[in-house]
Write a structure and sequence with these properties.
276 residues; alpha+beta; Conserved hypothetical protein from pyrococcus furiosus pfu- 392566-001, ParB domain; Arc Repressor Mutant, subunit A; 3 domains; 14 helices; 51% helix; extended
Amino acid sequence: MAKNSIDVYGASGKSNVLMFAPEDLHLVTEHDHPLYDERVHLPLDEAMVLNIMALGVLQSILVWKDPESGKTLVIAGRQRVKHTLEANKRLAAEGKPTLLVPAVPRRGRTAHQVAAGMISENEIRQADTPLGRANKMAAALNRGCSESELAMLFGCSTVTIRDTLAILDCTAAVKNALESGNITLTHVKTLVKLQPDEQRAKVAELIAAGNGAKPHERSRRQAAVLGDRPRVKSKKQIQAALAEAQGEYAAALRWVLGEEDTEPEPAPEAHQDAEE
C-alpha cells in the first residue's frame, strides 16, 4: 500500500499546489493596484521560453482569489506565466501537449494584505556568485550535459557558458577579486590568457585602479590597465557612413551590413584611416 507523501519525505505537513492554464491567471497591469509590479511589462526572454518548453515551470507561483472580481490574481511569478503562455503557443503549433502553471494560493481579505508576499518573493533573494555559477556549470558538464544543454538550463548563450567556466582556470587572486566585485567577468576573459604570475600582478593593478572610483570612472581606469580595445561601430553609425561613402569603401560597408553576398576587396588605405 502506498505511503502518505508526508511519511515518504519525512515532512512536517503539506499544502495544496493548484495547477492552472496560464490564460486563466490574471496579471495586474493597473498602476494603482496594490499587486501592480512594473516588471509585468518586461519583454519576453527567448532563453526562458525555451527553458520552460523543455522543463516546464519548476517553481510554483503565488496567487490570490480576488473576492470582488472573482479573478485569480498573480502575486508573484508574472514572468513564469507570461513565458508559459508563449511556450504553449509554440508547443500547440508543434502538436505537443501544453503546460500548466503550478500555483500556491495565499490567504488574505484584501489585495493590500497579500501585497507583502509579492514584494518579499521578488526582493529577498540571493543570486549565485560568479564562481558558484561556474562550479555548477562544471559539475553539470561532468555529469554529461552539453554546452547547449547548459545554455538552456542557465538561460544564457554557449559563449557565456565558456566565459563563465574560464573562471575555474584562473588563479585564486583572480577568483577572489571577481567574488568581491573588484573585477568583472569581462576582465576574467582577458586575465585567463595570462600566465599565473601575470594574472596576479594584473589583477592587483585592476583593483588599485578601481579603488575609490565611481562605476563609470572605475570602468575607464580598469580598461586602461588592460589596454584600450577598438570600439565597435553600431549599425546606425555604419549606415550613416555608408550614406556618404563611395566605391570600394561603400562596398565594404554594405558587406558589413549584410547587403552583399561576397566579401569585398580590402579598402584603400585612405578609407581605412577615415573609418578609424
